[in-house]
Write a structure and sequence with these properties.
The chain has 225 residues and is α/β, with parallel strands linked by helices. Helix content is 52%, strand content 11%. The longest helix has 26 residues, at 89-114.
Length: 225
């Protein structure tokens, strides 16, 4: 890793987004370990645990109303979740309100993280992962997304890890395959709408790691004053 990456006036920050099972945690661990070995101080922020608002209430309410399973699905213990895959006008209205609150929280969380002693802050999911739950084909929703994008800081790199929905569900069986296909398409639509997103095409793990690291090396070195 270039020595220039170890010199900075402020922290840089990176976000990883994608459908469940796309391999975000694996890539975050890889990039974090690699940069730490190069001498950087790296901090990770879990969006759902540290940024999103009213998470416990949202989880309880979703489970009570929609009767979905709790927990994280694994190949040996799949679950059937019903939350972001529930689409209706009422749920869209609720999401619009909640995501606005999350955008304000995101703004605060980024500013706080960039004032830390870290050289690089990695967000495990970002507000993008919530916006991808909306129906982006409608004009009002697209206008809402543009408004949210004016509120939240732009990461120095925004990775979208694309994935074959079948393989993603095999790794993390939580949502119906049909929804994962729709969700993947929403991520691609969102990437085109907001711009500035680095889409990593579905590839074997070593190829994805190489692409992530090479892009980080170029982008973060260039971003430094």
């Amino acid at each position: 890793m270039d020595q220039a990456l170890t010199k900075r006036n402020r922290a840089r920050f990176v976000s990883f987004s994608g459908v469940d099972g796309a391999g975000k945690s694996t890539q975050i661990q890889f990039l974090s370990a690699t940069l730490q070995q190069a001498g950087l101080r790296v901090r990770s922020v879990a969006f759902w645990d540290e940024v999103a608002t009213l998470t416990r209430l949202r989880e309880r309410t979703g489970h009570t109303i929609f009767k979905g399973d709790k927990g994280v699905g694994t190949p040996s213990a799949p679950v059937q979740r019903r939350d972001k895959n529930v689409r209706s006008r009422l749920m869209t209205a609720l999401r619009v309100c909640l995501y606005f609150a999350d955008a304000i929280s995101t703004r605060r969380a980024v500013h706080h993280a960039l004032r830390s002693d870290a050289d690089l802050v990695i967000f495990d999911r970002y507000i993008y992962d919530e916006l991808a739950n909306l129906t982006l084909s409608t004009g009002l929703v697209r206008a809402y997304v543009r408004m949210i994008m004016k509120l939240v800081p732009r990461p120095d790199i925004s990775y979208f890890l694309d994935a074959d929905p079948r393989l993603a569900r095999a790794r993390k069986p939580e949502y119906p395959l049909e929804f994962i296909y729709l969700n993947r398409q929403s991520y691609l639509q969102l990437s085109a709408l907001i711009g500035g997103v680095t889409v990593i095409d579905p590839s074997p793990l070593p190829d994805v790691q190489r692409q992530v690291l090479e892009h980080a090396r170029r982008a973060l070195t260039t971003a430094l004053p």
